[in-house]
Specification:
The protein is mostly helical. It contains eight helices and two strands, in the order αααααααββα. It has one domain. Strand 1 and strand 2 form a beta hairpin. Helix 3 packs across helix 4. The chain is globular and about 70 Å long.
């Protein structure tokens, strides 16, 4: 009689998760760079939209992290699949991003050995939480999913009044975007260590 436990079947390999992390981080960095170039060209509405896409890429990181121990049929695999289809799901995941980054930071060999690294990690996590709270305050909501609506406003004309069929171009929303999303005007802050 064979008493060896059967090998657990995971949904994805470690290589898949690592490649996904690298791809999401690179794409997020590329999107932030594109957003900064749009800001420099004074195209603030599409800059906001592209910055939100970068945030969605960071939301995918958390969904990917869940695959490390996910079975093909469990809730973690389902969450990853849902995040691949839903913009608001990826944005909602962002509230847990400081937790993920804190755990990743602790996996670094410098953690607990180099004071400068530990301080940089702590400062980055506090700043990330503060930035998230500032966005919540500006959006007057408790979820990042509202950013999906702002992303749409930055890409497409918005119908303001159905009866008058008044369309507002994204460029005219510029005066609304800075005061609503970012205190002090449009900018992209990339807090990552």
């Amino acid at each position: 009689m064979n008493m060896r436990p059967s090998k657990r079947k995971y949904r994805s390999s470690l290589e898949f998760v690592e490649a996904g992390f690298r791809a999401c981080l690179q794409n997020a960095q590329d999107l932030v760079s594109a957003s900064q170039k749009l800001i420099a060209a004074e195209l603030h509405a599409p800059a906001l939209s592209v910055a939100v896409l970068a945030l969605e890429e960071l939301g995918k990181l958390f969904a990917l992290d869940g695959l490390l121990y996910a079975r093909p049929d469990d809730h973690k695999a389902e969450a990853f699949t849902k995040a691949g289809r839903s913009h608001s799901t990826k944005l909602d995941i962002l509230v847990r991003l400081p937790l993920l980054l804190g755990h990743l930071g602790k996996a670094d060999p410098r953690y607990g050995k180099e004071r400068a690294y530990d301080e940089a990690l702590a400062i980055s996590l506090v700043q990330l939480k503060d930035d998230g709270n500032a966005v919540f305050n500006r959006l007057q909501t408790k979820t990042f999913a509202e950013l999906d609506r702002w992303k749409q406003k930055g890409f497409y004309p918005v119908v303001i009044n159905d009866r008058l069929l008044l369309l507002v171009m994204p460029s005219t929303l510029v005066s609304q975007i800075p005061c609503t999303i970012w205190p002090g005007g449009p900018r992209v802050r990339w807090t990552f260590f």
